[in-house]
């Protein structure tokens, strides 16, 4: 029996296993509208064997986009493109589809050079705009000074998260994850490094979690009960003046009270130049474990989880409920299928690909010497996945 391949549940959403494709920006949208790249990218990932695929950070307003290529969900055209994408990949596998909603805060208006990993401020001649943030503090020297949001602006943005959630609901997503990490707007409010306000939105931890908690409340109000709502949060800023794990526990508890179903525990990126411990396999898993133990919330671990036996141990030892993988899935979009073979688990293949199933050819075992024989021997022509009998949602 594999823990990784045991069925999971997030809120009211049933999942086939504990493997999640972590959200990954593709910088390939036009005016925030999904393109054929997104269809191919997500279409590929729903065949990965993961139980859940979460689409990339998608902005709730134009000012909240990181780059000109970021997805948005604040116009009818953006909604229609995402609805078409969902309709097109729905039924290709049993994977559930999620969407991450974001606002980039003081890290908006950049151009991202994927191979250099980080963004850099967009020059005026490339259509730069002025970001917004809790305080008028730029991300770094040379970056735009954001406009400080007033009460009205904050309320409007909370409403934009809810409005995008309504659009995501109409588009047919099963899950929404709010991006509350990595130095973007929600995290800007949460972290004292980016939030120097002295009103009800800053200062004490109660005030700094107010913005994410209000977003959770507004989104939960419009997001159907049977669909899952999650939050990606920063476990630490790796800085003595920044967010601590104690803060993260309080935020997670506040979110749970608003009906958030899970938290994905990440870290870092509030500001440049902060010394962080070198990333090692599973380096952020202890954050998920701590949150899970202290709040009882469903916890997702992310960060350098690449080996099937490693992922299996994390779930089997109850260190996290779900494991989210980003780069391993880009590198190998059949990661889940291969993990099943390595762990001796019998899972469904798309019928079109069934001849590549490890028990149907020798190639996989040949290139993966640690592969144990598949648990069962199956008939090559057994029509296992021709039709998916999926429960309807919404
Ligand atoms: C190409 C790429 C794009 C990413 N975009 C997002 C994103 O949209 N939202 C997010 O929360 N994290 C994003 N991340 C971070 C990943 O979700 C993940 O947390 C990180 O890569 C660590 O996991 P890994 O070691 O499995 O890659 C991105 C990572 C990559 C490699």
Notes on the protein architecture:
This protein has 394 residues and is α/β, with parallel strands linked by helices. The protein is built from 12 helices and 15 strands. α3 packs parallel to α6. The longest helix has 21 residues. The radius of gyration is 21 Å and the shape is globular. 48% of the residues are buried. The C terminus is likely disordered. The site of flavin mononucleotide (FMN) has 19 residues, from β4 and α10.
Average predicted local confidence, pLDDT: 91
CATH class: Alpha Beta
CATH topology: TIM Barrel
Which structural category fits the helices and strands?
alpha/beta
Largest sheet features = 8 strands, parallel, barrel
Strand order of the largest sheet: 3-4-6-11-12-13-14-15
Helix content: 25-40%
Order of helices and strands: EEEHEEHEEEEEHEHHHEHEHEHEHHH
Radius of gyration, whole Å: 21 Å
Number of contiguous helices: 12
What ligand species are in this complex? Answer: flavin mononucleotide
**End-to-end distance:** 33 Å
How many discrete domains?
A: 1
Shape: globular
What amount of the residues lies in strands? 15-25%
Keywords:
394 residues; 15 strands; alpha/beta; disordered C terminus; binds flavin mononucleotide; TIM Barrel; 12 helices; 8-stranded parallel beta barrel; globular
Task: Please render the helix and strand layout as text.
Elements: E1 8-10, E2 13-15, E3 19-21, H1 36-45, E4 52-59, E5 71-72, H2 76-89, E6 96-102, E7 110-112, E8 119-121, E9 132-133, E10 147-148, H3 151-171, E11 175-180, H4 185-190, H5 205-208, H6 210-222, E12 228-234, H7 245-257, E13 262-266, H8 285-295, E14 298-302, H9 308-316, E15 322-325, H10 327-331, H11 335-342, H12 363-367
Parallel strand pairs: 3-4, 3-15, 4-5, 4-6, 6-11, 9-10, 11-12, 12-13, 13-14, 14-15
Antiparallel strand pairs: 1-2, 7-8
The structure holds flavin mononucleotide.
Residues 22-25, 56-57, 100, 179, 182, 232, 266, 302-305, 325-328 line the site of flavin mononucleotide.
């Amino acid at each position: 029996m594999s823990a990784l391949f045991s069925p999971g549940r997030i809120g009211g959403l049933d999942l086939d296993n504990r493997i999640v494709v972590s959200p990954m920006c593709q910088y390939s949208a036009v005016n925030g509208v999904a393109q054929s790249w997104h269809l191919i990218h997500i279409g590929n990932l729903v065949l990965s064997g993961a139980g859940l695929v979460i689409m990339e950070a998608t902005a709730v307003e134009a000012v909240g986009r990181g780059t000109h290529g970021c997805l948005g969900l604040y116009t009818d055209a953006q909604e229609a493109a995402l609805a078409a994408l969902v309709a097109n990949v729905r039924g290709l596998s049993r994977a559930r589809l999620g969407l991450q909603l974001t606002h980039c805060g003081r890290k908006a208006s950049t151009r991202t050079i994927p191979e250099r990993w980080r963004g850099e401020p967009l020059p005026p001649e490339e259509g730069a705009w002025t970001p917004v943030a809790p305080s008028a503090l730029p991300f770094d020297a040379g970056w735009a000074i954001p406009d400080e949001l007033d009460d009205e602006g904050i309320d409007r943005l909370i409403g934009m998260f809810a409005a995008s959630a309504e659009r995501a609901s109409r588009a047919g997503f099963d899950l929404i994850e709010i991006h509350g990490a990595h130095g973007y707007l929600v995290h800007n409010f949460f972290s004292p490094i980016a939030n120097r306000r002295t009103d009800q939105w800053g200062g004490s931890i109660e005030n700094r979690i107010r913005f994410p908690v209000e977003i959770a409340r507004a989104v939960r109000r419009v997001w159907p009960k049977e669909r899952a709502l999650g939050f990606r949060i920063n476990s630490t800023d790796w800085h003595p003046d920044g967010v601590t794990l104690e803060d993260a526990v309080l935020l997670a508890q506040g979110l749970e009270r608003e009906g958030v179903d899970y938290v994905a525990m990440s870290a870092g990126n509030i500001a440049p130049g902060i010394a962080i411990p070198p990333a090692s396999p599973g380096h952020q898993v202890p954050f998920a474990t701590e949150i899970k133990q202290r709040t009882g919330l469903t916890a997702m671990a992310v960060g350098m989880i690449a080996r099937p036996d490693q992922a299996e141990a994390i779930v089997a030892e109850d260190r996290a409920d779900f494991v989210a993988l980003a780069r391993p899935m880009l590198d190998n979009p059949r990661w889940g299928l291969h993990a099943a073979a390595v762990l001796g688990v019998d899972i469904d293949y798309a019928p079109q690909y069934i001849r590549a199933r490890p028990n149907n050819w020798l190639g996989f075992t040949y290139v993966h010497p640690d592969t144990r024989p598949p648990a069962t021997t199956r008939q090559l022509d057994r029509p296992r996945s021709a039709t998916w009998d999926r429960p309807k949602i919404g």
